[in-house]
Every structure is written in structure tokens, then in C-alpha cells.
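ARCHIVE CARD
SHELF: 3
SLOT: left
DATA:
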Amino acid sequence: DLQGNNISVIYESDFQGLAKLRILQLTDNHIYTIEKDALHDLISLERLDLSHNALTAVPKRAFKGAPALRSLQLDNNQITCLDEGAVKGLTELEILTLNNNNITTLPRDMFAGMPRHGMRCAFRRTRLRAINASRLAPYTRCHSPGQLKGQNVADLHEQDFKCSGLTENAPMECGGRSLCPHPCRCADGIVDCREKSLTTVPSTLPEDTTELRLEQNYITEIPPKAFANHRRLKRIDLSNNNISRVAYDAFSGLKSLTSL
């Protein structure tokens, strides 16, 4: 049980060798990224709770190495994007909850290979725009919201997943150029996250980002290699935050950076 701490990153070696671990509780932290193969040795893991964190995207094979996973809870994050391979290989998965995120659409093959006995999914208050349920098990039923509870997901229509007042936005792609961290604004290489009450550095940015505005937030630390995947960055503004810790390699790889 690691809930209620200040964990921000799940590193590849954090749970190495814990082959008998069955339950991992990581709620109420500041986790914004999970490194590739971070769960590699957790072959007995049945329940993983990552709710109430700062995840913005769930990348491909994020949970690779945990084939016995039955319950995956991702509620109350800032997720805008799920890669179609995020849960690939989780053939025992029965419960997936994504309540209170910023998801507008799910990949067409998101649930390919899910268990035949059915799976309980919850998308309450996710702003989900559409879902293709053709590959879900025939007895997969909605758990929430209330008006959809108990209904067969395969029988629902696109309109059933639309929230009132939702505007049509182009779907985002995990790791793609169009991925703008919620609730920031992105245009012409500038990612504007000023005064958005952020507590962590965004884990995903558009590929063409050259300027990152993070001033007037509540960011407390700059983690290792926080911007390593964004070598085009020329300017980063972190003024007026609550930063007390900066990793020694926080800005490594930023050869184009001219203003910090």
C-alpha cells in the first residue's frame, strides 16, 4: 500500500523481483508517467489502483508484464489518450475504470482479446465521444453512469456515449503531434499551461513543441529527464511555482534550449 505519498514516476526497476505481489495500491500520488516495462516482474498482480494521480496518457503496453491483472483502476487522472495496445495481453482483465478523466474517444481495437466471460467498464464523467464495441465480449456490461448501468455495451449506440453539451473535437493520438496536455492550449509550437493549477510537469507534449509555458502553477519538482523527448524545446518558463527539487538530469538532452 503506497497510497497518499508524493510518487511521481514509476520506474522500470521499482518493483523488480516481486513475482508474488498480488495487490498494488498507488492512489493519491502525483504519478504522471509509467516507464516501459515497469511492471515486468509482476506476474501475479491481480489488482492495480492508479486512481487520483496525474496521468495524461496510457501508452502502448503500459501494463506489459502483468498478465494476471483482473482489476485496473485509472479513475480521477487527467487521461486524454489511451493507446490501442495499452491493455493488450491482459486476457484476465475483468474490471477497468476510467471515471473522471478527459477521454473523448477510444481506439477501435482497444478491447481486442478481452476475456470471453465479459468485463465491467466504467467511464463516468469521461466526456467519451464514441466507442467501438464490436470486439468486446458479448456479455460485457456498463457499470456507470446510472442510466447505462447493466446494459450490454455491444447494444449501445454512439449517441449513448455523448455527454450533453459536448462539442465535437478531433480525436487525439497517443504520442502524436496532436496530443496537447489537458487543460493546456497548443498552437504553432507553443504549449500554454499558464495558471492551470498543475502540480506536475506534463508527461506528453506535441512533437513540434518549441515553447512551454508553465508559469503560475503549483509544480513542486522537476523529475529526471522531464523533457528528454522534446529536443526541439527552445524556451521553458517555470516561474511562480512551488519548485523545491530539480533532478540533476531534469533538462538533459535539450540542446536547442535558449531560455529557462
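SLOT: right
DATA:
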Amino acid sequence: MSEISRDEVSRIARLARIALSDEELDQIAPQLDHIVDAVSKVRQVDTEGVTPMSHPHSIDAGMRKDVEKRTLTQKQALDQAPAVEEERFVVPQILGEGD
């Protein structure tokens, strides 16, 4: 197990633009060391012949049939809108002035 030094934590924090106090540096160094040690142990597990998966249980998504359905016409969709302009919904601007 290689220990992560306080100086290494300070350097990583500086690169990540995270301000840490001396107390936090002293506290985080052993925590990071513990995390690196745990990851190291997981990497040592023999996974030869193990099929990669994204979920621990097999999942059947069950695709539905692609069936055409009636939907609202543009007129029906805009009929109840509080404000319409050029056959579109009018909504308040949310991203800065004049964008």
C-alpha cells in the first residue's frame, strides 16, 4: 500500500481549484489512501471469462410495437396556450437579455 502524502493531496486540490485548510489536508490524505487501497484490491480480482455487464441482473427491456397513433394537430395543441405567435407557443425568456 502506497501512502498518499499531505503534499500530494495539496497538489491535487490546487489542480482541482479546491481550497483546503491544513486540517482538511490532514484528514483527506488517509481517506484517499484508503480509497486507492480499496480500488487496488478490486483490480486484483480475476475477471477472466466474466462477461461485462451494466446491471447485476439481466434486464429485458421489452420493446413495444411501433404503432401509429393519432396525436394533437398543431391547432389543437396551440388552442389552450396563453400566448401564440407565428403558430408557436410564446414563453418568457429565461436566458439573458437579447440572446
